[in-house]
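Sequence in, structure out. Go.
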Amino acid sequence: MFLIGLLLSGIIAAVAWRARALTAGGAAAATIVGAVIYGFGGVAWAVLLVVFFLTSSILTRAGGGQKPAADRTGRTAGQVLANGIVAAAFALGHTGSTAVWIVAGFAGAVAAATADTWATEIGLLSKTPPRLITTGRVCAPGQSGGITSLGTRGAIAGAGVIAVLGNLLLGTSFLGVLIAGTAAMFVDSVVGATLEGRLRMVTNDTVNLLTTTIGAVLAAALAARLP
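Output:
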C-alpha cells in the first residue's frame, strides 16, 4: 500500500509542480505525506487529503491576482509539512488500531488546514478590508491575524466539506470535525496577530503546524461526544 501511495502521490505532486502549485521541494514533501496517508490510512483517508490540496490550489489560483508575485510560486516543503505532517502522524498511528480518536484526529487536522487555507484565499476576495481579530483595527489584506466576514464563512465551509467527507468515508463526527477545524482557524488568527513575526521561531509555517495540531486534538477529544 505504501508503494502504491508513493507512486500515486508522486504523479499528483509532479502534475502540481508542473502547474506551479508546488515547488520542487514542496512536491517531494507532498509525495511523502501522501504516501504515508494512503499507505497507512487507506484510500478514504487519501481522499480527504486530495480534496484539501485540490480545493486549496484552485482557490489560490483564484486569488492569485491579489498576491505579490513572490507568493505565487507554489507551496514549499515547509508549507506542505506544516499543513500535512500532523495528519500523516495520525495515519501512522492508525496502523493496527481501530481507535475512533485517531481517525477523528486525522480528519480534524485536515479540516483545520482546509479552514485556514480557505479563510485566507477567500478572504483575499473580500470587498471590505480585514480587521485584526484581537483589536478590530483595519489591517492590510493578507496580514497575519486579519479576518473578514467572507473569509470566516469560507473557513466554516472548508471545515464543513472535510467534516462531511470524514463522516461519510471514515465515520467521524460531523460536528466534532467541523467545530475542531473552525476553532483551530480562529486560534491561527489569534496567534498570527499576537506572536507571528514578533518571535523569531514563530513563522507562518509554525502557526500552521500549531493550527493542524489543535484541530487534531479537538476533533479527537470530541470524537465520542458529538454526532
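Check: Residues 29 and 81 are 7 Å apart (CA to CA). The helical segments are 2-18, 24-40, 43-62, 77-94, 100-123, 149-170, 174-194, 204-222.
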